[in-house]
Amino acid sequence: MKPVVASPNKGGCNPRRILLAAGIVTVFGAASAKAQVPPPTHVYELNGSLADTLGGPSLVASGSGVLGATGYTVAAHDSGLSLTGAMNPLSYSIEMVIRIDPYPDPELCNWAPYVCSLKALDSQDRTSDEGFYMITADLDPATGHLQIFPLADSNEGDVVFGELFHWVFTRDASGLLSAYVNGTLRVTAVDTTGAWAFDVFDTIHFLMDDHAFVDDPPRGFLDRIAIYDQPLHFIDVARLSIAAGFGPACVPPPSDMVGWWPGDGNTMDIAGDNPGLPFGDTTFDFGVADQAFRFDGDGDGVAIPEAPELSPADQYTIDFWMRADEDNPMAGCCQGLVRSDFYGLEIVGSDLGGGGPAALAATPTDFAGTNNPPGSVPLLNPGEWYHLTGVYDGADLQLYVNGQLAASVPQTGTMFPMPAGSNLAIGSEDGFVNEPGLTGLRYFKGLIDEVELFSRALSPEEILGIFQAGPAGKCKVVEVAIDIKPGSFPNSINLNSKGTTPVAILSSAEFNALTVDPATVRLEGASVKLLGNGGYQCSAQDVNGDSLSDLVCHVKTQEFNFAPGATTGVLEAITTAGTPIRGEDSVNLVP
């Protein structure tokens, strides 16, 4: 029969949708957000040349390193690259795609791991041991950690030797040093001595190490180097890492999500059935994950009308990204972020000057906020992105900033439900029934992205995972077309059968069904039958005559877990690239 393109699961938790089978893309690609990344001042592709592709000073090779068509290889003492006259003295970023090769003598590394190391960066013109090192792990010479010597070390296992990884090192004007691996922050330190300021020495060295401890020389490979004249924000680091193909990866949406308003060019709820209503001059702009809501602070907002599922009782979690405009100091009370009459988050200002957020929850025992006692509000800087999370678990009301607990107050009881006719507001506090006097007063000027509401308290690990995913966001599910029992109608299935049921995953101009991993295919809980040779009973066929190869798999009928009276069957699977897919088709269940 003609395949059915799945529709949103009303009231359920559906990850962000891309309707490929229908030829409709409902979200903006990640590339749209990359326009915000500051441009580099120097770029070295190392594709057979040490020249700066932007016209600046060239790298200089020393020792016996080898420049090849795809990068620069080091395998000897005192070999590597240096760069003079390219660094901003006090604030900068260095981006590299690099590989550190393992040492051939693992026993030596186990005995004294510090000798199996590589000085990846040197900022003191090789006049001291201070530098940035990659050091093998104590128990596993195939992995290692980062070290800003002598200031700080990252965790073991942050680096895998023998594999390319994306690495960014930043210094800001205050001396804060930060190092990232594959888009994730791994170690920080404060440059108290000024060793990482290029105001005395004007040369930086890459992979140059005398390695005086052992005869075995360090080994490494540089694929690319880029220099920036400012410290990159952690969101920009993650964007660069994603663009380079290293991550971070998206995270599966946590369970019990009852609303998801990503702000990707519309006000749709992609987890439930509660779209927002924009008012004022609400528009959209570049956000963290694709686009974000843009508010000008003068009568803008998004109103989501009251609905039963938007009234969490004993627990709730709200999370989102926000960035106040440079001219919005967030001082004083108050600006609406994401709030209803009785729960949410808002900007409350701070006794210390500037502004900060607070989580709110109203129960019969108290209308609590994490801004008590006064002075406990974490300060936020205008112009910077923050991930905020408010959590009420029935015992405490908590505020998380960038994945870390920032404030907590005791709170008990069941929260009051949203009053009839009220709103869950984004970017304002208009439309409250309990506090109608707030309408017209509390508008936020800036960007809000990826608003989500859960009917439970997320764990600290879940909150940290969402933050660390950054611009990768929560995993998008691709909606595809499927055809259960190709060529038949009404797709009758005898649940007592001991055989198999064929299902076709259909290719389209935007989706190649042959990229689906058969091991992950589940049709209403039924998996694909294994053949005697250990393979799966799947084959490539063009079942609908569109000259595209579809994937036809036979699932085990006795494994079906249809609900009584079901008239549709849902297929879920994952591609070899890790993309979740979903499709549905009609069925006629036979006793």
Describe the structure.
With 591 residues, the chain is mainly beta. It has 3 domains: 136 residues, Immunoglobulin-like; 190 residues, Sandwich (Jelly Rolls), CATH 2.60.120; 217 residues, Jelly Rolls (Sandwich). 4% of the residues lie in helices and 37% in strands. It has 3 helices and 43 strands. Strands 3, 5, 6, 8, 14, 15, 16 and 18 form an 8-stranded antiparallel beta sheet that branches. The protein is globular and about 80 Å long. It starts with a strand and ends with a strand. 46% of the residues are buried. The N terminus is likely disordered.
Structural class label:
mainly beta
Cα radius of gyration in angstroms: 28 Å
Gross geometry: globular
The overall average pLDDT, rounded, is: 87
Number of strand segments = 43
List the helices and strands and how they pair.
Blueprint: E1 4-5, E2 17-19, E3 42-44, E4 60-62, E5 66-67, E6 72-74, E7 80-84, E8 92-100, H1 106-111, E9 117-122, E10 131-136, E11 143-149, E12 152-153, E13 159-160, E14 164-171, E15 176-181, E16 184-190, E17 203-206, E18 220-228, H2 234-243, E19 257-261, E20 277-279, E21 283-286, E22 291-296, E23 301-305, E24 316-324, E25 335-339, E26 343-347, E27 357-363, E28 366-369, E29 386-392, E30 396-401, E31 404-410, E32 423-426, E33 445-454, H3 460-469, E34 477-479, E35 481-484, E36 492-494, E37 500-505, E38 522-523, E39 538-541, E40 550-556, E41 568-574, E42 580-586, E43 588-590
Parallel strand pairs: 2-34, 34-42, 36-43
Antiparallel strand pairs: 1-35, 3-18, 4-7, 5-6, 6-18, 7-17, 8-14, 8-18, 9-10, 9-17, 10-11, 11-12, 11-13, 14-15, 15-16, 19-33, 20-23, 21-22, 22-33, 23-32, 24-29, 24-33, 25-26, 25-32, 26-27, 27-28, 29-30, 30-31, 35-37, 37-40, 38-41, 39-40, 41-42
